[in-house]
Amino acid sequence: MKKNIKNTVFAILFSVLILSTALLAYLHFYASNDKNLSGEWTANLDMTQHAAVTALDWLQDIEAVSVSMQDMESHMQGLTIELCLTLKQTARTEGTFDCSVLPESYTACNQAAYEAFAALFRELLAERLRMAGYTGDMNEESIEALVMETFGMPTTSYLMFCVPDLLPPLENLQAQYDGSGAYEVSEGILTRQFDSGQLVRTKTEHYIRKDSTLILTEEIDSATNGYFADHYPIVYTLQQSQVEP
Q1: Which residues of 116-154 are buried (b: 16+ CB within 10 A; e: fewer)?
Q2: Which of 46, 64, 79, 165 could form a disulfide with 59 if both were Cys (CB 3.0 to 4.6 A apart)?
């Protein structure tokens, strides 16, 4: 079963990669490669697949009723964490940057992930009760009351206590994205030299800017920390007040 889950995830990621490549190819020929990247940019890191895979794996471990990856993702939609990137040009092809994952956005996304999982968990619990011959009321409020009576806590709290973390640790994301320093641009390549944190590191990304959209794709051989987002385009949007006429 776990092999099927991994194959499904691989197929999803491969499809995303094809679409991403097509998008980048289109923008390469039709988008502007403006070297002036100054402004406050925001992006949303999609955590849906990470949360869905973790939740589904746990359900399989406890031998819950059958649920597909599609069912899981349909309940866990729009799970994103906000990433802020400020760029300030100081010369024609260089400048300074500051990047950070918003902790409050992470907290909200984590809560939303468990609440979405709780909604599905109540549905699965109701299905298992029907299979066992239970004839009582099985609306959402009644199932929640049964959970409270059985576990002494709401469904969301129970899942937070029992299920492995649905999101990567905030500290890992911060280690991956947070930092400040200097940048250079050349022929569609953005090179950022981080000078904050314990280690000085360099991040090399292909970039394409089109009006108020900035797409960054990290080179495949850079340090990755094992997260899917590293090799997929991160789409930043320039805050409206920063858009140049």
Answers
A1: bbbebbbbbbbeebeeeeeeeebeeeebbebbeeeeeee
A2: 64
